[in-house]
Amino acid sequence: MFSARAGKEAKNRINTLKITFLLIYHSSTGIPYNYTDFFKIFSGAKYMRIIGGRYRGRRLYSMPMRKDTRLLRPTTDRVKESVFSILDEYIEGTKFLDLFAGTGNIGIEALSRGAAEVVFVESDRRFCNLIRKNLKSLGIPPEKYKIICGDYIKALKKLGNAGKKFDFIYADPPYEKGYYTKIVNLVKNLNLLDENGLLMLEEPKKNPFLPEDNRWIVERRNYGTTTLTFLNFSRMHLED
C-alpha cells in the first residue's frame, strides 16, 4: 500500500531532480542563480510562462493548488497561443482589458506583445496581489497597466462612466450560468469596445453562450473542452 511517507519521499526525490536540473542549467549557461526558483520548488507554487513578445520565456507566478484556489482555471498555453496568433499583428499600441484576470496571464501576454495599456479586473485580493507581483517581477512600468480589485460589474460600470474604450476585451469567468450574458450586455451597453474591437469569451464547449443577436459572433473556435468566441457589436460588422 502506498503510504504517506513513501509519497513524501517520492516528492522529495522529484524535487531533488528539479534542483539538479536547475544547477546544471545555470552552470552551463552562465545565467545567475535565482534563489526564488529553488524556493518555489519546495513551496508548491506553480509557474506559467509568457509565450511570445518582449518577455517571451519569462515565468509568471501562480497559486499553489489548494482547496481555496481549486476554482482557478488558468488559460492553457494552447488557447493562449491561438488567441495571440490571431491578434499578433494587430495588438501593438492597443488598449486591452483582462476581465476575471486571475494571475494576469492573458493581460501580461498582451503587454509582452506590445499593447500600450492593459487594465486587469479581478475580485480576489490574493490574485490582485499576484498580478502586481508578476508585473513587478518583469519590470513592466506602472503607467502601462491598471489593476482594479473588485466586482466585475462595478469595475465595468466605472470604466464605462469614465469613457474608457478597449480594442480587445478578454473575459474568462467561472463557468457558472449567467456570467456571459451579463458580460456581453455590459460591454455593449456601456460602449466599452472600440468600433473595430473584439470581445473574446473563454467558455465551456459543452454549454456555449447564446447571444441575443447571432450576428455579433465574428468567429468561434474549439480547443478540447474550451470554446473561444469572438464578438463585435459595430454596425459595420452587422451590415456585412
Secondary-structure map:
Blueprint: H1 4-29, H2 35-43, E1 47-49, E2 59-61, H3 77-87, E3 95-99, H4 105-112, E4 117-122, H5 125-138, E5 145-149, H6 152-161, E6 166-171, H7 179-189, E7 193-204, E8 217-223, E9 226-231, H8 235-239
Parallel strand pairs: 3-4, 3-6, 4-5, 6-7
Antiparallel strand pairs: 1-2, 7-9, 8-9
Helix pairs in contact: 1-2, 6-7
The fraction of residues in strands falls at 15-25%
Radius of gyration: 20 Å
The strands making up the biggest β-sheet line up spatially as 5-4-3-6-7-9-8
Largest sheet: 7 strands, mixed
SSE string, helix = H, strand = E? HHEEHEHEHEHEHEEEH
Arithmetic mean pLDDT: 81
Structure description:
This protein is of the alpha/beta class and 240 residues long. Helices cover 39% and strands 22% of the residues. The strands form 2 sheets. It has a 7-stranded mixed β-sheet with strand order 5-4-3-6-7-9-8, with helices on both faces. The chain has a two-stranded antiparallel ribbon with strand order 1-2. Helix 7 links the parallel strand 6 and strand 7. About 9% of the residues have low confidence.
